[in-house]
Amino acid sequence: MCFRWPKVPHKDIAESERTITEKVFKTPDATGKIGRQFYFAIIRKDDPHQKVIGAVGINFLDPAPSLGYGIHPDCWGKGFAGEAARAVVNAWWQLDRMGSDKAGKERLYAACNQANIASVKVLLRAGFRKVKEISIEGDTVAVFDQTRPC
């Protein structure tokens, strides 16, 4: 698995836009294809200006789909990451599967810095279970998975 995340929040909207553009439109998945992602902007439903406050989606669709998300620091601690993560996970499992005979065995993965207690809680509340811890670049990374509901 490959994990990347910023250790500090982006400096400004322009940095976030560059990062999202690079990720969604220029980064190939494990098969070498570009643009095969299940990714969404997070917008507060009560904001008439529809300002983007984060992003959430499923990365690396093949061979190991993984949930990823990020929220602007001004919006931390307000439940937006959890709501978005649960919605995307539920939508992911609702998608039709073509040619798959692995019903019930398909897995979705996620990871976060173990020290980021809020992110650990987001993943646990979204139905993930912690399966192991690994060390990446000096950080302890918690790895999670969940099995497709029957």
Automatic annotation (TrEMBL):
Gene3D superfamilies: 3.40.630.30. Residues 9-129 form the N-acetyltransferase domain. One of its GO terms (molecular function) is acyltransferase activity, transferring groups other than amino-acyl groups. Pfam families: Acetyltransf_3. SUPFAM superfamilies: Acyl-CoA N-acyltransferases (Nat). InterPro entries: Acyl_CoA_acyltransferase, GNAT_dom, N-acetyltransferase. This is N-acetyltransferase domain-containing protein. It comes from Penicillium diatomitis.
